[in-house]
């Protein structure tokens, strides 16, 4: 077995293009007589060297005319190289462009056969796999109607189903999957993933750089017929996207210049340099809109801001751990920062006892000295049954009915009371809906697929997000608007929604947090990034030791001091930083009233945790910002 | 030798495609018009009737059973005309596909000539009807017809390859060829008899350089006259067919890798 599926060596493709395309005899004869028939040489590809191993997935990016399709054609054997060699080991199946392999007058059934045979399958083979194709394409009902009545999505389904009946050794996909509905695209992606893990080599050309990122391990960036860059798809796509954006920006710069002369400056004013504002501004800028980001604070990043204190990244507004199960979001943030492998496994201290969090077998065995999950489950069930709680009337009863007495008393009660500044008996039951219990010895706080902290802190990630975007700090929107309303067309507002409407219906309530940050002359203060204090006597709820978020930085550059933050939960009053929205009935109803006002507001987009009055994890904020930006720009995102 | 083996192998691999393409052509042709098969019989019949009426009055000397005389030649000419015309467009017409997939391009040309052959065989019904209606005599020699069709098939493949290839580079070949076809029809004794009313040089010219003469003459021999074709037209027919094939294949092979740049 050959190691490589595809070997391209020193390939050069040269076209002889007549100055004007002569494709008829008359002109040809005239030019011939006048000795005008000059041929111009056009090098479509040059110095192409590529070795692709079996089972790898390669994406091809580049502007129109850079040679992507020419290269694919050369590999598929459609074009013969002028110089150099192309060696293929295995069977190539191209995914045929819509309409190309399909005869509109024939029925779907006939097209399946025809298409399959164009790909070199025998009739017998097609008969064998016919049902499978029909099932995948989901066109069973329309088998005997002519394909000309089909939508483009239906045709794409047909094409894809036929091309992938057998796992081809090499699958060539050229911009065909951009049509069709979401469900089918997902199905295609799944099938391609499956084929990839089954050893199929994938060659993929698309204008949608995100889909290249998603699907391909490697990418080739072609520029004027040469390989500009080849390697891991992330790097190549980033570099390519960067240059593309630079190009767009350059064009925009000229437009801006013009606008400036005409007296108008920004398309969007983004209020708030937090995560939502930054992602939104970036997505808009990327597509050629001019944005100004303002924030009343003296730094960017909003609540995820981290401050460098002698080489330690301090999470100024509370510990932030990035976690998500959405691959797209994970890839997105990885473009702006490298993430470490930090896994959040907090500890809880109750009086002088120490427990692992979240509630898992480590916690329970410490509590009761039990080792087997069954024993623990029985124990908790017994404790819950003893209480005879039918309908929990308050938070205490709710929590008790979920975890039993021991866990509640030691690990839930004090912490919750400190968080809310009230007795659990006086808190409504709805605050805690679930208290997940884990019957494995697993201390990982989150269940998400991806987790980590950006190396070098969140602020540098935010800087990269806001790269090349105008930012003005220490600028309050309401002040700025008074004097500069002619500077922008639209507003993206990520501040508090009630403040925007001047609290006309009253204040939305929050809980707030206060941090006491301290430098301790100890290399390792508590041995963990997050330690919760669950008894009510200790006034703070948690202690954060910031260096443990970045173990790799500490390893590289050990420090004999540490920075810790004690976190105190506190009442919120207008004027202090809002942290957690109080999503009870009263406040939610109030929010709805503001929301209705917001909908009336023209040319203002409300987004982010404060304008939506909701607790938002970072990944959800990013997702919302990307989607809202796409909606604003009227583009479709995958 | 290896290359040859490889070629044969690919031909076999794509044989099913060839069949499918042929059956597509036929299906589409007969599906689209409601008269379907009837039409492909009716068409030659109607032209035959018109021509018979016109020419029996125009031509001084009467040709015995003119309808059969006409049809036995015309049939082959129509086949040649249709198949080469379609073959000419076979590569350009599948451009969208050929730009995406590697498929041996000659398959499309071959498919067109083949489907026209099937078409012609189906339209033999017209001849049969005419022979019955005119009470023409059936000769055993008619059984030799497949041999002649085969010769012409080979000839048309060759010519088809040549035209398909030319059409890629010069699209106006289509107009030029349609003029040639009309001239070719009159240059071939289909509606007339090549007898002594024509000057000697003309007779010689037709007999020596017009390939269609060989096939029409053979077909007349076996259907109309009931003779075994003379060796000159019989062997000449085969030789010309193969010469044409070699020229066609050579021209096609030579430039097939460049097609993609022009379609
Ligand atoms: C204590 C705590 C811990 C958290 N931990 C995690 C975690 O571990 N993992 C996770 O995924 N998420 C976590 N989150 C959630 C995360 O902080 C938010 O998802 C994120 O910060 C929301 O970003 P944003 O842009 O919506 O809001 P912000 O970051 O709050 O940005 C809003 C910005 O707007 C500015 N602004 C407001 N009004 C005005 C005005 N009138 N003029 C000018 N500027 C204005 C503010 O100064 C602020 O900078 C945590 C949240 C808290 C409170």
Account of the protein in words:
The complex is a heterodimer of chains A (638) and B (263). Among the domains of chain A are: 263-341 and 450-507 and 581-633, NAD(P)-binding Rossmann-like Domain (Rossmann fold); 361-431, no CATH class. Chain A is globular, with a radius of gyration of 31 Å. In chain A, helix 3 (108-118) packs across helix 4, helix 4 crosses helix 5 (152-163) and helix 7 (209-215) packs antiparallel against helix 8. In chain A, a hairpin with a 2-residue loop joins strand 15 and strand 16. In chain A, the strands form six sheets. Chain A has a seven-stranded mixed beta sheet. Chain A is 37% helix and 22% strand. Chain A has 638 residues and is α/β, with parallel strands linked by helices. With 263 residues, chain B is mainly alpha-helical. Chain B has twelve helices and no strands. Chain B is globular. Helix content of chain B is 78%, strand content 0%. The mean pLDDT of chain B is 89. In chain B, helix 2 crosses helix 6 (106-133). Chain B has one domain. The two termini of chain B are 31 Å apart. Chain B has helices at residues 2-13, 15-32, 37-58, 66-93, 95-98, 106-133, 145-169, 173-187, 200-209, 211-225, 231-255, 259-262. The chains are: A alpha/beta (638), B mainly alpha (263). Chain A binds chain B through residues 15-16, 23-26, 28, 73, 76-80, 92, 94, 96-97, 99-101, 103, 105-106, 110, 113-114, 117-123, 174, and chain B through 13-14, 16-17, 19-21, 24, 27-28, 31-32, 96-103, 169-173, 176, 257, 260-262. The complex binds flavin-adenine dinucleotide. Flavin-adenine dinucleotide (FAD) binds at residues 271-277, 294-297, 302-304, 318-322, 476-478, 494-495, 513, 579, 608-610, 616-619, 621 of chain A.
